[in-house]
Amino acid sequence: MNRIRAGQTEKYKEGLAKGANEKAIAVAKAMLKHGDDIDYISLVSGLSIEEIRKIN
Questions:
Q1: pLDDT in tens, 32-52
Q2: What is the tens place of the pLDDT at every residue in 25-34?
Q3: Burial letters for 1-27: b for 16+ Cβ neighbours within 10 Å, e otherwise?
Q4: pTM to 2 decimals?
Q5: Which end of the chain is more exposed for a tag (fewer CB within 10 A), N or C?
């Protein structure tokens, strides 16, 4: 039973991380569209400059 719960907890954490990353990407896209500076977008979104350049 503990293994099942551990597996569920891990999947839950993975889902949260994926959702947070998707939200950061959405924020970065909106900021890019708005014309914000990549360094500032990185600071606000938590994404690396390289990740933002890939989005752009």
A1: 999 999 999 999 999 999 999
A2: 999 999 999 9
A3: eeeeeeeeeeeeeeeeeeeeeeebbee
A4: 0.80
A5: N
Report d(CA 14, CA 23) in Å as an integer: 14
What is the C-alpha to C-alpha distance for residues 4 and 43, in angstroms, rounded to an integer? 38
Find tokens 């099942």 and name the residue: 4
Collapsed DSSP state (helix, strand, coil) of residue 37: coil
Contact between 32 and 52 under an 8 Å Cβ cutoff? The reply is: yes
Give the amino acid at 7: G
C-alpha to C-alpha distance for 12 and 40, rounded to whole angstroms: 30
